[in-house]
Amino acid sequence: MDDEPQAHTHDPAIAIGVELADLATRLAVVAVGADGQRLGRIQRARLERPPTPEQVVDRLSAMIREQSADAQPAEVGVAVWAHVSPDLGVIDEPRYGAAWNAFPFAGRLGERVGAPVRLIAGVNGAARAGARSGGAGGGW
Question: Helices (H) and strands (E) in the chain — how many of each?
């Protein structure tokens, strides 16, 4: 019997969607398939205010592992209801506090879950989702 841990391979059929709201005190995580359909329930959590970026990364890492059922997600998208710098992978919102200044959020979460992480402002994510679902142009 081999005691070596098995390396996870990225499952292109699984992506993780994350929402950070209310100054990162409200978290939501969901796994989706290649067809964009949800693969289970949305997992939600609350953190005490103000959480540190490390606390948020720790909690999200655990939630992502649970949502992906130990499969390796191909990617993680994080919608944040704040100002973000997607190219830098940082949440640069003054209301979050000094601990968040220049914290490499996407990089740190990506290291923890073993998948690329992309940040997007929540409002931009909502607009993209609406456009993809036919909402743009009056479909809503």
Answer: 3, 7
